[in-house]
């Protein structure tokens, strides 16, 4: 018991053997959960490329029979197909249209036809069709083959046809943009999603190059980034609060947050953005915490890493610019505080630091941003051939975001995000027996609601107690949150994701204050137990586990909680 207490209460900003073991256990357990049913690693990899009136023909290997369903896989370009049936392969009769509305997804089209041949005729140019599977009246797959050489790629991977369509084998929510574009980058095609910089999609592309275009592959890097965020937050808290127990709490908050869990497992780029922002702030915090007498090369190295990750965040999403503002405020405040005033003077080292930061926080981010565009220049509306094209592309991105006038049932105003008033409903599927799969971007209520209180705590500490940690967290939070006051386009709860780690650190700071005042860890431990219980309760809703519909409906605690 004494050994456990020593490990739990150890005081140090540096990581020791026990830290690596504890963090390793947390990450291992979280990874088991996050990789479980992340997505199938089996999906069609070949497609028939069709233009208007091109046709794919599927031939049943036996006699003509009643066909009640067609299951088809959509490739990287969508289309509607006219379906025709034939007994002899010569005379065809129109049956109905088959519409595929989501890229890299399976779709069922109900039929009522007796046939030996099925012809799918494209109604538009430049569409891609994967496997086509026919089913008999009992719901069993029919033996089939391609009816001609042109159609081979729609019947060469029939073993990939799933027994059930779900998020496990099909794209959902914004994967239709980001995962699709990662595939297009991997194959040198014109990129569909152009309203965000390329870096996140390039990272997402890496497993696709080696594993093919499967849900597991295009969700893999985001899930790894989500796991890495747990480790970074542990290190951040260890540096900030100087005690292992607070680092453990911070890591557990991240691991037990269902919003982080759902968002990281989806094939989008937000997890990369948040990881890079968190790393940029971590290295800035480490720099600020170093005494002026610390070796210059070490301080410069920390600033270089902060600038590097800041640049990577901006090259993923422009939201990284909000972090750049926060980092600038922190850097210049520290610069002024340490170099101006009674008994302080500007040194040669300070000059070197300031000049170096031009490179770290201006030149390096620009090189990353411009370089990633020139490495992957195939974009709409402006393919990148020179800086003029990049400027036009940048203007087009700005115009898109500043004038977007779309609507969406799960949009929510910025001021409602801290209390999680309206989650984002990413996916739903209904099954027999009143069973349901759902994936919602909903956080752990204990973390989010207590976190909203913790924000007022750090505000109080920063203003009235002049607490440096609280001020740091407040700057990181406000510069990532308040800019949304001035954004008129529709917004979603996931726009709160970049500041969520700082809310968690604020929560740790609040419980640190409670612990020091009461001289007991019992409130912190009790809170973590509640967090773990709520994580288990809400995990099915964040992970797509098949559950009775009554259970899912019972979790709708607020009027705007739809999932």
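Sequence proposed for the structure above (563 residues):
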């Amino acid at each position: 018991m004494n050994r456990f207490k020593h490990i739990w209460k150890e005081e140090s900003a540096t990581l020791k053997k026990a830290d690596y073991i504890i963090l390793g256990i947390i990450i291992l357990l979280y990874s088991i959960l996050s990789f479980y049913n992340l997505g199938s690693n089996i999906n069609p990899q070949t497609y028939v490329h069709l233009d208007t009136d091109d046709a794919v023909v599927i031939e049943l290997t036996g006699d003509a029979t009643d066909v009640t369903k067609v299951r088809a896989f959509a490739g990287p370009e969508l289309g509607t197909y006219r379906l025709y049936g034939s007994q002899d392969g010569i005379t065809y009769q129109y049956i109905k249209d088959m519409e595929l509305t989501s890229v890299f997804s399976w779709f069922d089209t109900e039929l009522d036809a007796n046939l030996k041949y099925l012809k799918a005729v494209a109604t538009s140019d430049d569409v891609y069709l994967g496997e086509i599977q026919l089913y008999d009246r009992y719901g069993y797959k029919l033996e089939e083959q391609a009816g001609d050489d042109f159609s081979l790629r729609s019947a060469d991977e029939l073993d990939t046809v799933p027994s059930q369509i779900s998020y496990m084998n099909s794209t959902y929510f914004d994967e239709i943009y980001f995962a699709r574009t990662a595939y297009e980058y991997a194959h040198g095609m014109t990129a569909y999603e152009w309203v965000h910089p390329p870096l996140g999609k390039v990272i997402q592309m890496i497993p696709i190059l080696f594993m093919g275009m499967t849900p597991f592959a295009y969700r893999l890097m985001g899930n790894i980034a989500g796991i890495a965020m747990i480790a970074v937050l542990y290190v951040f808290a260890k540096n900030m609060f100087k005690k292992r127990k607070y680092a453990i709490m911070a890591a557990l908050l991240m691991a037990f947050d269902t919003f982080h869990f759902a968002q990281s497992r989806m094939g989008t780029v937000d997890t990369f953005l948040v990881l890079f922002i968190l790393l940029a702030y971590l290295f800035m915090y480490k720099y600020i915490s170093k005494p002026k007498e610390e070796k210059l090369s070490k301080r410069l190295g920390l600033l270089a890493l902060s600038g590097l990750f800041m640049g990577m965040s901006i090259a993923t999403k422009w939201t990284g610019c909000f972090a750049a503002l926060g980092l600038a405020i922190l850097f210049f405040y520290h610069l002024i505080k340490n170099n101006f005033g009674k008994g302080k003077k500007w040194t040669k080292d300070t000059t070197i630091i300031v000049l170096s930061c031009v490179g770290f926080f201006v030149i390096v981010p620009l090189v990353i941003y411009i370089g990633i565009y020139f490495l992957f220049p195939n974009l709409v509306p402006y393919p990148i051939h020179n800086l003029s094209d990049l400027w036009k592309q940048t203007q087009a991105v700005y115009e898109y975001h500043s004038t977007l006038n779309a609507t969406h049932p799960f949009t929510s105003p910025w001021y409602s995000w801290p209390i999680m008033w309206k989650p984002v409903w990413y996916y739903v599927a209904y099954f027999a027996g009143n069973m349901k799969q759902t994936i919602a971007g909903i956080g752990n209520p204990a973390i989010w609601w207590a976190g909203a209180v913790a924000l007022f705590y750090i505000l109080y500490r920063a203003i009235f107690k002049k607490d440096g940690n609280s001020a740091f967290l407040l700057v990181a939070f406000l510069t990532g949150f308040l800019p949304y006051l001035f954004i008129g386009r529709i917004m979603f709860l996931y726009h709160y994701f970049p500041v969520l780690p700082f809310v968690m650190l604020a929560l740790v700071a609040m419980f640190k204050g409670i612990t020091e005042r009461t001289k007991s860890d019992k409130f912190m431990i009790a809170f973590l137990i509640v967090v773990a219980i709520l994580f288990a309760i809400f995990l099915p809703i964040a992970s797509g586990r098949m559950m009775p519909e009554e259970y899912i409906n019972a979790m709708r605690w607020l009027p705007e909680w739809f999932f």
